[in-house]
Known about the structure:
alpha/beta; Rossmann fold; 2 domains; six-stranded parallel β-sheet; binds zinc ion; metal-binding; ADH-like_N; alcohol dehydrogenase (NAD+) activity; Alcohol dehydrogenase; zinc
Amino acid sequence: MSKAAVCVDFSKPLEIQDVEVRQPGPGEVLVRMVASGICHTDLHSTRGDWPVKSPLPFIAGHEGVGIVEAVGEGTIRKVGERVCIPWLGYACGHCRYCVSGWETLCPNQIQNGFARDGAFAEYAVVDGNWCGLVPDNVSSQDAAPLVCAGVTTYKAVKVSELKSAEVAAVWGVGGLGHLALQYARIAGGTAIGVDIAEDKLELATQLGAEHVVNAAATDPVKAIQDLGGADVSIVLSPNETVFNQALAALRPGGRLVCVALPAGGGTLSVPIFDTVLYGKRIIGSIVGTRNDLDDTMALHAAGRTKVISMGVGLEDINHSFELMLAGKIPARHVITEF
Length: 338
Ligand SMILES: [Zn+2]
Ligand SMILES: [Zn+2]
């Protein structure tokens, strides 16, 4: 049996239950969880907030880190390896997206913690070929947030094509934002942290942001335009207003990278005239590939990123969700007790 936080109803808190652990089938691995990060996506998916919903009941969690305890036939993973369980739990490998390095867009994909049970449990059975390896010198608690928050923002900076002389505004300095700022600086860019909480802006400064903007105290569009405008705006806050502000804060040639997923889907209103005249681009970016995940881990193993997190128990998960909704989480809660 495995203790798990199960979503039984979108309108109810997660239930801590003992669930059956099945043996891994072909291609699968059985992972004993050591750490499991709690992402904003888990909050939305377990409340049924989006146009697409997981069938009930299900176990969320897609920032899992654990030890392989058993393997099925035909997986590259081995017993004893420390692996991670990311959102992208399978892609077909044959479609036009998979063969062109865009496995994240595969129409046949299966997401861990959504289409298949995920990492909010003592044990998970997932596709072994889609589990990344965690480098030896990266702690499990650090690794967990990298599995979604890290890879997602690493990818967002990558698709933004941020150059060393450019400025990136990061909208929302939480679990994703605190890493996005660091990847923007690793790419050589200047980083602006935007948030509505002073403690998060202090964190942004500690992590190297050259500028911070408190969007509750000042008009962030004006503040950023006063600095010359942003070449890149990365939106990590699931708030429609923020998407519109992030677009308006761009300078000519700027790129808006949409990462957060607002409840209900969300709508962005785009002024066509400005978009054409100023050559602006709008890019959607969803998680990252297995290569991106390996890159994210390698950067951390090389000491180039810092993960801010707090360990919690599996039983505390509903409390973590409440704190997350209230914006009171210092970057990331990671389940370290199961
Ligand atoms: Zn996530
Ligand atoms: Zn595919």
